[in-house]
Amino acid sequence: MQRFALIGAGFIGSLHARNLFRHSNVSLDFIADIDVEKAQALAAEHGALAISIDEVFTTEIDAVLIASSTPTHADYVERAAHAGKAIYCEKPIDLDTRRAEQAVTAVREAGVPLMIGFNRRFDESHAALKEVAMTGELGKIELVQMTCRSQETPPMAYIKASGGQMRDQAIHFFDLLCWLTDDVPVEVHVTGAALSDPSIGEAGDVDTSIATLRMASGALVQIDCTRRTGYGYDERVELFGAEGMAESQRQPHRHLSIYKGSEQISDGLHADWLKRIEPTFYAALDTFVRGLDGEQVDYPNAGAALRAQRIADAATKSLQTRMPVTLTWD
Amino acid sequence: MQRFALIGAGFIGSLHARNLFRHSNVSLDFIADIDVEKAQALAAEHGALAISIDEVFTTEIDAVLIASSTPTHADYVERAAHAGKAIYCEKPIDLDTRRAEQAVTAVREAGVPLMIGFNRRFDESHAALKEVAMTGELGKIELVQMTCRSQETPPMAYIKASGGQMRDQAIHFFDLLCWLTDDVPVEVHVTGAALSDPSIGEAGDVDTSIATLRMASGALVQIDCTRRTGYGYDERVELFGAEGMAESQRQPHRHLSIYKGSEQISDGLHADWLKRIEPTFYAALDTFVRGLDGEQVDYPNAGAALRAQRIADAATKSLQTRMPVTLTWD
Amino acid sequence: MQRFALIGAGFIGSLHARNLFRHSNVSLDFIADIDVEKAQALAAEHGALAISIDEVFTTEIDAVLIASSTPTHADYVERAAHAGKAIYCEKPIDLDTRRAEQAVTAVREAGVPLMIGFNRRFDESHAALKEVAMTGELGKIELVQMTCRSQETPPMAYIKASGGQMRDQAIHFFDLLCWLTDDVPVEVHVTGAALSDPSIGEAGDVDTSIATLRMASGALVQIDCTRRTGYGYDERVELFGAEGMAESQRQPHRHLSIYKGSEQISDGLHADWLKRIEPTFYAALDTFVRGLDGEQVDYPNAGAALRAQRIADAATKSLQTRMPVTLTWD
Amino acid sequence: MQRFALIGAGFIGSLHARNLFRHSNVSLDFIADIDVEKAQALAAEHGALAISIDEVFTTEIDAVLIASSTPTHADYVERAAHAGKAIYCEKPIDLDTRRAEQAVTAVREAGVPLMIGFNRRFDESHAALKEVAMTGELGKIELVQMTCRSQETPPMAYIKASGGQMRDQAIHFFDLLCWLTDDVPVEVHVTGAALSDPSIGEAGDVDTSIATLRMASGALVQIDCTRRTGYGYDERVELFGAEGMAESQRQPHRHLSIYKGSEQISDGLHADWLKRIEPTFYAALDTFVRGLDGEQVDYPNAGAALRAQRIADAATKSLQTRMPVTLTWD
């Protein structure tokens, strides 16, 4: 039984609380939030104890799940590392890559496990795609196509604090890309525009973008990101290899079709990202817990977090300069 | 080059004329119809000569394609047989099975080739299903499901002359069934009703029916037939075997999808049976011609015609008596 | 908060225990089983107390969930009814319809809620089909097609105690049919055979069957049931109406396709019925609990249980006599 | 009846000959080829007369269909224009855009109709996509995704004479893009590599490329092109607008699925581009002929040819310089 403290009792914190509560090998002992009442309400719901954030790093627990606001992540990661706790941290560690690197250094020195919430890896269909890629049956990967389209533009306050579309939205797919292909990009070029909402452009960001990457292996990659579709949450990944192609497809939310006149009207995509992605939160947590229980598991670690962040930085620079940007890896 | 005379210059005759004209190994020399003007117009369109029906059986040709009205088929088949011509005849040979048997006897005595227009066998997807069935990879067939739904009720005059839903519509699927499974039914039970149009019921026919058959091999079969959908022409065949299932699916008429709101709106089925089935007419003709040219081909012959007709007779009897009807084959 | 006692700590009981534990408005207080150790183990897992079956009917609880073996259901239903508890009972109440009717009488006299575990109604796609049917946009229903194919034949011991394919497997679809169409059958004809395993035939049962039903409204229905596919769990429902058709489709278990050579290889169906149906158990329970909490809900009640059972009895009689059987309803 | 002369009796010429022969409003009178025997053989097959290329421009015909080798196109276009014939010319008019512009000037001065063989516009699904785009129901177009993947690398001789992947393969999609969106690109960036065959790289070309375009309207576009898949011909277009998305999808060549074990094995894509695209040749020709017959039709004209060519030139320059290239239009 792994004893957890959860930091953050907001939307994502509550979601994690439900999964921690459900998990038979987890004991959700403590919940902390700078808003004490929020922590108390969520704790009451799941039979946990509300404590202060400082107490999290001194109590008898095995792991900390960090789901607070982004600017607090690096600090909490460092403190949890110093306290010798295993860490599950929502992405990103910090919008500033150097600050994130500092936190990762603390984690590495402490030798504690760190998992980053790149939960798309735990989507069943994407995971099946990874399995296919690893069998080698597609041959050498030559082309990757990723579609990443949110249903609804987040509020401007969120946009402004997000670090931009590359660091906030595309970063999940930068991680997915490296993981699926076991490769890293050496060049990235991004074209973008604020098409759905001019105020996004005024804030210096884009809502529609196409990233083109060249991988170390020579493979080419395209990723299109948009902030709001008129038709639900749309995510899709294609791996094209020398001997075949595999696709983790758009997913209908139910399996109903109506035939009328000259049309077949089917259920469309999931209404929002949470409906599509929700099962991955539990699957990600479960992997982390199995790792704590001693099982050999594969999850997005500190290295993956920094890697995705460096790609997002380069992508952001390309967006700003309108030029391809080179990436080097040692 | 096979020289053809075509009898019948109506809707189906015109369709056959176009295919005969297009075929590079066919010379469409003559067209006959009891309506001489119709024959002349169609002949002019394709550089053929209009002749009388009597002349068809005395001219220098290799084959006769019979696409006239049903009551004339048996007579023309016999005359073509006596004249030693190869025969392609639209189904049925005659609504009365004994009359059809007489005509077949004449064909067999004359030793001429006879092909019946059960053209669904030549649908690419159904033909692929047959190939799968023949590999044995599905294991022993245990269950067959056939869906056969027309887009629009034919005129009452047609219904009244058709011999009923079993002899007119279901008969195509009785043939397809025997061909796909290489088997014959030993029992048939049909439940039906006139649901779309009461005047069909007053005429003693049904427009909606479910036939259940038990095959000699023990396999069970269900066939649903309807006369008018609200959504185009709907045809579908499933073969369920001990080791797998194969499906010749509903077919969209194009491959377009629109995603809007919570829906995916795709192109529906073909607007009518002709749009779905049209390519099979050419494929059927081509098979017949390749047979005339000496190639070893498989097509619905006299035996298949009589077999399907006996099943349709039994199905009609079951509809009338509301009881299962037994079929015996020597 | 509804306080529950669970009777039955076997496979289905354990599944219900997990859902009762997860539900935020449920307190799973007690678990009973004739195998006391099983009850204790399951109770320990969920922080409940193991008690004897007799104690279930005297403790301070709101509801009893009956998931014990079929022959005990009717007795427990009656005792729970006399004790004034709300009842959620796995199907069937009893294999013998008269015994089931007695139990239902007790429930009605006690005035307690009774829900039967016809959980397919709670499948998201079937539920969406029901919504479509209720809008009337399909027009008057004329034809229903249901496919119900299990992945693997249950053990012979199960088969022998099951009451036969109609009472064990088809009964779910008899309930679904009445619910979806808001109608009842007036005639049923079933053709069946033991094709996958002769010992099923020796036990007097079938493993492959086609049921044809005529509804009071005139609509025709076909249901095919098989016990083992070579390809996972296969369930499908089509409602064909005067103005359109709606289909709750076969469901792939993930959304992955591989394109290689001339093939597209996609994820197939769910490996077994539980993988396909599991979410419906929670959804069904949740509906029951919301009803207890005072919400207006629709679920399969005593009347639905008896209705499905009478259809299954008639279907079984048709199988045995090979003749259509008439059903009358007051 | 439009009287045609066909120049070119090779692979594409033969295909055009069959369509010209089939068309009821076309009289295929003459066929010319620099290889006289080829012209004679093809002419014999369709009842036409073989003539010299010079004679084409002096005979009594209405239209010339130019399907000879690319370097001859511009010359023949000019000669046909001077002779006052309507012209259907396979793409491109000339690999050199200035030479193509000269030929177009001759056509414009002569006032004769010129259609370019951008036949993908005539694909039924793409044409349906255009219709959807024109209704405005997708809202303002913001993102376009095009997939253009051939099944098999053409011979090196073809590659070397083709003008490169942009001018040979992508150009069809540059035309499709402008037509579908009624817009032009103002910036293009292409990343490419020779991944399937190093000798393509040695010849200075690529076989895998990703083009990113920014349209005058602000919309962003991505086009991926590959020379050989392991899985047939793969073509797909998505239009993403402010109010919805429409997709002209990958097309299976038949509609057969096999369910076995945990897989659904379906028919894959068309084996090669011709199988997928063949119907568009007839549809394109028919549109041209209807235009000659006085009907108001829309087809790829001289302006479209030059527009696509300028985009292909810019795309080629971007490939070579690895930098975005700007396009200006007056």
From TrEMBL, chains A, B, C, D:
Keywords: Oxidoreductase. It comes from the Bacteria. Signal peptide: none annotated. Transmembrane segments: none annotated. Residues 3-118 form the Gfo/Idh/MocA-like oxidoreductase N-terminal domain. The keyword Disulfide bond does not apply. Residues 127-246 form the GFO/IDH/MocA-like oxidoreductase domain. The keyword rRNA-binding does not apply. SUPFAM superfamilies: Glyceraldehyde-3-phosphate dehydrogenase-like, C-terminal domain, NAD(P)-binding Rossmann-fold domains. Belongs to the Gfo/Idh/MocA family. This is Gfo/Idh/MocA family oxidoreductase. It comes from Vreelandella neptunia.
